[in-house]
Design brief:
Helix 2 crosses helix 3, helix 2 packs parallel to helix 4 and helix 3 packs antiparallel against helix 4. The N and C termini lie far apart (about 50 Å). The protein has about 120 residues and is mainly alpha-helical.
C-alpha cells in the first residue's frame, strides 16, 4: 500500500508545469461548464516562458549551437500555444454562456478577476 502512495507522489513531483498546463487545457476543452481558473499554474507558466526567452537571448548572444537554441525556442512555442489555447477556450466559454455564468454564483467564483471583468463588459 505504501509503495502506491510513493509512486503517486513521485509521479506528481515529476509532472512538469507544461504537463499540468496540457492537462488543464484538455480538461477545459472537454468540460461542458467552465472549470476553476488555474491561476498559480498560469502565473508559473508565464514566468517560465519569460525565463526561457531570456535563456534563448543569452544563448544567441553567446553564439551557442543553433540546434540548442532551436530546441529551447520550440519548447517556448509549445508552452505559449498551450497557455494561449487554454485562455482562449475559457474566453469562448465565457462569451457563449455569459448570462448563465453571471447568474450562477459557483461558476462566477471559478473565473479569474480578469475574466470576471471581461464577462461584465
Amino acid at each position: 500500500m505504501e509503495s502506491e502512495g510513493t509512486d503517486d507522489y513521485e509521479t506528481l513531483i515529476s509532472t512538469t508545469d507544461a504537463d499540468l498546463l496540457k492537462r488543464s487545457w484538455r480538461n477545459e476543452k472537454a468540460a461542458p461548464e467552465i472549470l476553476q481558473f488555474q491561476s498559480s499554474l498560469v502565473q508559473r507558466s508565464r514566468e517560465q516562458i519569460q525565463l526561457m526567452e531570456e535563456t534563448v537571448e543569452e544563448l544567441v548572444a553567446n553564439d551557442e549551437d543553433p540546434l540548442t537554441v532551436s530546441l529551447y525556442q520550440m519548447d517556448i512555442d509549445r508552452t505559449l500555444f498551450l497557455l494561449r489555447s487554454y485562455l482562449r477556450t475559457r474566453l469562448q466559454k465565457i462569451e457563449k454562456f455569459m448570462f448563465h455564468i453571471q447568474k450562477t454564483e459557483d461558476l462566477w467564483a471559478r473565473l479569474s478577476r480578469q475574466e470576471q471583468k471581461f464577462a461584465k463588459q
